[in-house]
């Protein structure tokens, strides 16, 4: 009886564990930090991954262009209009990651907030 319980426990505890891509697999020197803002949040629930969020965000680059990014299946807890620090790949500006919540450039953050308000109207 004990063997069946132990075997059942081992099987259930190993369910849902698969190979997943880790953000720590990249070289930090290949990325630059820039200011971003959360524009939209999608909450998705699955029994194997619990609550995972998909964040849509806008970020500004040095060339004063506003770009958009998406981070899927994130464990971060953020709200719409939260300021974030975005890691942008130096060679391909479409490869981005949310590094953390924070402000590194108040002027850029204000511009991003103002652009989002004018687009909503």
In words, what does this structure look like?
- The chain has 121 residues and is α+β, with helices and mostly antiparallel strands.
- 23% of the residues lie in helices and 40% in strands.
- It contains two helices and five strands; from the N terminus they run H-E-E-E-E-E-H.
- It has helices spanning 2-14, 106-120, and strands spanning 31-46, 50-60, 66-74, 83-89, 96-101.
- The chain has a five-stranded antiparallel sheet with strand order 3-2-1-4-5.
- A hairpin with a 3-residue loop joins strand 1 (31-46) and strand 2.
- It is elongated and about 65 Å long.
Spatial strand sequence of the major β-sheet: 3-2-1-4-5
The gross shape turns out to be elongated
Into which percentage range does the β-strand content fall? 35-45%
SSE-based structural type: alpha+beta
Output the number of helix runs: 2
Helical fraction equals: 10-25%
Sheet with the most strands, sense and barrel status: 5 strands, antiparallel
Low-confidence segments, given as residue ranges, are: 16-21
Termini Cα gap: 66 Å
The string of secondary-structure elements, in order, is: HEEEEEH
| Rg calculated over all Cα atoms | 19 Å
Number of E-state strands: 5
Overall mean pLDDT stands at 78
Keywords, please?
121 residues; alpha+beta; 5-stranded antiparallel β-sheet; 40% strand; elongated
How is this fold's topology laid out?
Blueprint: H1 2-14, E1 31-46, E2 50-60, E3 66-74, E4 83-89, E5 96-101, H2 106-120
Task: Briefly summarize what is shown.
It is built from 2 helices and 5 strands; from the N terminus they run αβββββα. It has helices spanning 2-14, 106-120; strands at 31-46, 50-60, 66-74, 83-89, 96-101.
